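Hi support team,

I'm filing this because I wasn't sure whether my run with alpha-D-galactopyranose finished correctly. The job status page said complete, but I'd like someone to confirm that the output block is well-formed before I use it downstream. Pasting the exact inputs I used:
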Amino acid sequence: MEYGTNINTVLYGGDYNPEQWPKEIWLEDMRLMKKAHINIVTLNTFSWAALQPSEDEYCFDTLDQIMELVRENGLKVCMATSTGAHPAWMAKRHPDILRTEYNGMKRKFGGRHNSCPNSPTYRLYAAKLARQLAGRYKDYDNIVAWHISNEFGGECYCENCEKAFREWLKHRFGTIEELNRVFYTSFWGHTFYDWDEVVLPNLQSEHFMADGMDRTMFQGITLEYRRFMSESMLECFRLEYEEIKKEMPEVPITTNLMGFYKPLDYQRWAESMDFISWDAYPAPGDTPAETALTHDLMRGIKNQQSFVLMEQTPSVTNWQPYNKLKRPGQMRLLSYQAAAHGADAIQFFQIRRSVGACEKFHGAVIDHAGRDDTRVFREVEQLGAELQQLGGAFLEGYTPARTAIYFDWENWWALEYSAGPSIRMQYLDAVRDYYTAAFELNIPVNIIGMDDALDAYQVVIAPLLYMTKTGIDDKIRKFVKEGGTFITTYFSGIVDEHDLVIQGGYPGRLRDILGIWVEENDALPEGERNSFLYKGSIYPAEILCDLMHLEGAEALSVYEQDFYQQTPAVTKNLFGKGCAYYVGTRSNHAFYHHFMKDIFKEAGISSTMVTPNGVEAAIRVSGDREVLFLMNHNAGEARVVMNGDYVDLLSGRRYETGSFIEMNGRDVYVLENCDRQSFIA
Ligand code: GLA
Ligand code: ZN
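And here is everything the job wrote out:
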């Protein structure tokens, strides 16, 4: 189910919180939104206290008025359920709704995203509120989607959760013997005799002093607790989901995700969501590749379907240490980058800037001056006009990728909760190494999960695949045998889904595919490095150096120093009709660029376009239409030479093969490929 089905335009708008304002302002808001070409608002995100003033009393007067107003003004609605922050009276009356932190501290009322996901009170009242709302507003045909709660997240270590965790374990493992096996409790005499001896892994129990807030001495328990906590919150989502569907079965339901948000396994969440929406707040120092990767992740969790950019700031955030303004043109650029990677709607947080509390300095479409001649308002207005002009050009378009990168939340948890060999070994860094190389070559990538099929791909990369779940090796084996190119890295193939080491030599189940045996891993402290020669250039080997033996593979590079000098660092194994590469250490940007360029060449994958540094070219194919987004991420100008016949969808100007476009700093061109059949000149 899609956001705004049958609407042949990009939905454009944002979070609108009129309950913070006197009514006189509302009419002015309507005028300003119309001026900015805004056609959708997300309403009712944090109104639980107003909607339910006491245990059995609901009050919808204000929301009724708002709903009427926005309908009269032709706005679509993404309707939130307000369950992201509970009312103060509820916390006082039912303390079981309050969360307990990692250190065991029971919280008092305050903040948001503050309800224990296993609290019976929370579950009951959240579901009831969702039903009340859906029942009341079901005849509003301008509601194009439901938005449950807000940015689900955090964790809880309270007694509700502890009880529920024990039930979860019983269900997962059946017998106490199996529990002891998967938790490896023969270590340090931890054998459990009864389920209720299991406690939640936190500061009060299994905390591992060495480093990190959430590392514990029994990673298997922590891993299971992560699965449980993600699932507990997902159950809360589902409870509201079901209540809404009883009243409005046709309207799609989402919740706003947060990209690479570690605590929640979004690949599991996606299965329960009708469509994906997410909030993009890149930090000022984030590279264009990092932002693109996150969009690709959000597209990837639901079978590469398009998503909604539910929130972005039009100008500035309030919660970063330094809240730098988005430069002129940057909001437009980031919006088109989202669209280029799969967004079908562009929305802001928020429409009008708050007066008090912690978000009073967060950017908004309408700022404290209340005017429509600010830089930010004008930029919002211009983008709105452009999107209206583009209509449905790229809606529901897909990314034609023949390269996939695996990303797996459980691998992320297990790898980074493990003690040793190096705290510098970060999953995301390894994923970015490879993604960035492809990104800079303008080669489209799909981010895939462990359950996804590999048929569509020629190159599959599994950075730091520490956890190899049952069956994954078979899938990769088949892929390579049939002619695919597989790449994996140091510290892969180490454990199973319970974080138990696969015995008989690393990389375990992947050994035959890669044709190697890794005997040891050398973790280099910061500042220390080895090196290797790859096709004539010397590259650094950092963080981890795998010491390995060849068992059929050939060494493309060897280490240059230390006692493992001359032993393999990078290998290639011919396997069936395909081949498998192992990069046994972490290197630098230049290496990944060089290496991946060779891989793509060998695999017959070519760039969408060759562009100057910092200019991104990405395409979306929608039906018979192919739309090319050219995005200049540089502050300065850039010249792009066209490699096909295109028409600029905004200016109508045509560009033939060999002609060039002079792009201003941070400029974007949205072009349609004229060679596609359906194009009517
Ligand atoms: C999140 C929330 C919003 C708002 C913004 C501020 O994305 O969902 O309610 O707090 O952050 O950046
Ligand atoms: Zn709890």
